[in-house]
Design goal:
Mean pLDDT: 85
Helix content: 55-70%
Radius of gyration: 28 Å
Largest sheet: 5 strands, mixed
Structural class: alpha+beta
Oligomer: single chain
Shape: elongated
Number of domains: 3
Strand order of the largest sheet: 8-7-9-11-10
Strand content: 5-15%
Length: about 625
């Protein structure tokens, strides 16, 4: 009886200790997640008070405004029963195919309920604020699922969610490249399929759903996942051919299930991409475009988004970085400490795999040819192979820095975890107090790595851009019935303010012009592609005079020389407005070159219908 009581008591104590340990682990994990959230808030803290009035990006044109427009269109389309993958709101009369543009439809879908009580700018900024913490959290929990030591997993999540590439993308409001919680989940699912060693309908279904969801956030990232996944399987097959032969059948079966799920979920979006209306028949980023190469020194030289230059300011200024968003910087201090960690864990299979994938990702970011210190050596690189594979030939090579950050995060986490495991082993084999020094080593090393990462990768956060909006009087003067509007500034990549006006006016008018990938007629561009700007800009109007005049007043010579302001141009203006069924003209008189534009429309249409502040509006129906 006593023995029975003692047994029960011992079991109860063991259960209590186990429960207490579990609670401590949960509390520690919650603390890590809260720390990520605090970092995300701290990054945008100076601007949070303007979350509804400013776009969280220093860029005054291009991608931030397009990203805002695309997510807002998803909200508008879903709430009004329209096609979320195509829009007639810009590029009148052709419209815009959102399958080939990074429209992030999934983020638009899931945030649509917020559109019932939040403004579009607030929602876009909110996504930007939570994107990095959510991504870091996903990586952290996947690493914990793989039994990685909690501090090591926390650092890995930090590198993945707040790495240089992600920070750079956030400055251009590329939410489709900062909201990346799904790739770690995809990796975890693939690993689970291999570990199970048997056909799993559930895992195959889950993999198909996760991959489809990632495609609907950013197809490029989905393509990266395929590249890294195939490379990882090839690495394992080379190292362990017998294991691959054993698992080939069940893994292939699970992959087939995932493929069928993906085929069903992505049939229409992929059709829209390759054959839908206004699709672009050529790759949007073919070889030779200005963004297809990354300088080798970018891995070592601090970029424009790093706060500390380590005395390499002259190199930072000299190395060519066409896109500050595409930041592949790792830094010499981080590379040194990672090299030390990898050397210590060089026999660990998952460290070897992470290192191989890191090197592959870094190589792919360099693009089709090796560039060193701004000089293109024309030395061919493996990325040239991807140019012959559909979908993959649309990847912007420097964006593969996403894979660099992901593999670097895994490499650091696995290496630190290996150090910790070695010390636990020495603790179990040791005696007396000799365990104390080695037991503290892993903690000290983790803190050292964290400090080095913080100092080396500390980013510079820049200012926001005011979200342009039309005065109330001008908005009220816009005719009902979804009219076509011609604006000045004329809506192009160089002047995306009109697209923000449209978003803030709840798409109450359509735009003659816009920014996004769309086809140019061969009559306007016989080669099908002349420079990166062509498929992003509105096609030439017929007649051309008004468009050339507006563009040249903005400083854009894409459509030819500026015609003189005379009666002939007035006649062309009236003909153009009639041909494109323009019902309203809006001019911002504070914009560059607006005075001759306002004079032209006054000569063609008479006095403005409405005036408010710097804005004037003509109701062309009257």
């Amino acid at each position: 009886m006593v023995c029975g009581v003692e047994t029960v008591s011992a079991s109860a104590v063991e259960e209590t200790l186990s429960g207490s340990l579990r609670h401590r682990r949960i509390a520690a994990s919650l603390a890590v997640v809260c720390a990520y959230l605090v970092l995300g808030l701290a990054a945008f803290w100076p601007d949070l008070s303007r979350i509804s009035r400013a776009i969280f990006s220093p860029a005054t044109l291009g991608d931030p405004q397009l990203s805002l427009w695309e997510v807002s269109w998803e909200h508008y389309a879903l709430l009004h029963g329209l096609n979320p993958f195509f829009s007639h709101a810009i590029f009148v009369p052709g419209g815009l195919n959102l399958g080939i543009n990074t429209a992030t439809p999934l983020l638009g879908f899931v945030t649509t309920p917020l559109a019932l009580f939040m403004g579009p700018v607030t929602i876009e900024n909110l996504i930007a604020v939570v994107a990095m913490p959510i991504s870091a959290t996903a990586a952290f929990f996947v690493l914990r699922k793989w039994n990685v030591w909690l501090p090591a997993a926390a650092i890995g999540g930090l590198v993945y969610g707040f790495g240089p590439n992600t920070v750079g993308q956030s400055l251009d409001l590329h939410i489709y490249l900062t909201f990346i919680p799904l790739p770690p989940l995809i990796a975890a699912t693939v690993v689970s399929i291999f570990q199970r060693g048997a056909v799993s309908w559930r895992l195959g279904l889950l993999l198909g759903i996760l991959f489809s969801a990632q495609y609907l956030i950013m197809p490029e990232v989905a393509a990266y996942c395929v590249i890294l996944g195939v490379a990882a399987i090839a690495f394992v097959a080379i190292r362990h051919p017998a294991l691959v032969r054993e698992l080939a059948r069940p893994v292939a079966s699970s992959a087939l299930i995932a493929g069928l799920v993906t085929l069903v979920l992505l049939a229409y979006p992929v059709w829209t991409l390759i054959a839908g209306p206004q699709h672009v028949p050529t790759p949007p980023h073919p070889l030779g475009n200005p963004y297809d190469e990354n300088d080798l020194l970018n891995f070592f030289v601090p970029g424009p988004t790093q706060a500390i230059s380590f005395g390499m300011g002259s190199l930072t200024a000299r190395v060519d970085r066409l896109l500050t968003a595409e930041n592949s910087y790792i830094g010499i201090p981080v590379l040194l400490v990672v090299g030390y960690l990898v050397y210590r864990a060089r026999q660990v299979p998952r460290v070897q795999l992470s290192l191989a994938l890191l090197l592959l990702s870094a190589l792919l970011t360099l693009g089709p040819h090796l560039v060193v210190d701004g000089n293109n050596t024309r030395f061919p690189l493996p990325f040239l192979i991807l140019d012959h594979i559909p979908v993959f030939n649309s990847i912007v090579p420097p964006r593969m820095a996403f894979g660099v950050d992901a593999c670097l995060a895994a490499l650091i986490a696995f290496s630190l975890d290996n150090v910790h495991r070695d010390e636990r082993t020495s603790l179990q084999l040791g005696a007396g107090r000799r365990w104390r020094a080695p037991a503290l080593r892993s903690g000290f090393l983790a803190v050292t790595v964290l400090v080095l990462l913080g100092v080396t990768l500390l980013p510079k956060w820049e200012t926001t851009t005011p979200a342009a909006t039309l005065p109330t009087q001008i908005r009220q003067a816009v005719p009902a019935g979804d009219p076509v509007a011609l604006t000045y500034p004329y809506a192009t990549y160089f002047h995306t303010q009109p697209m923000v006006w449209q978003v803030n006016d709840d798409f109450d008018f359509r735009l003659l012009g816009g920014y996004g990938f769309h086809p140019w007629p061969k009559s306007a561009d016989p080669s099908g592609y002349i420079g990166l700007d062509r498929p992003l800009e509105p096609v030439p109007m017929n007649p051309e005079g008004l468009q050339r005049f507006l563009a040249n007043q903005e400083g854009v010579t894409l459509y030819g020389s500026r015609p003189p302001l005379n009666s002939g141009l007035v006649d062309v203006t009236r003909a153009t407005l009639s041909r494109y069924n323009v019902k309203v003209v809006i001019v911002d008189r504070s914009a560059r070159g607006s005075r001759p534009v306002a004079k032209l429309f006054q000569m063609a249409l008479g006095l403005p219908t409405a005036t408010a502040g710097s804005f004037v509006l003509w109701d062309v129906r009257t």
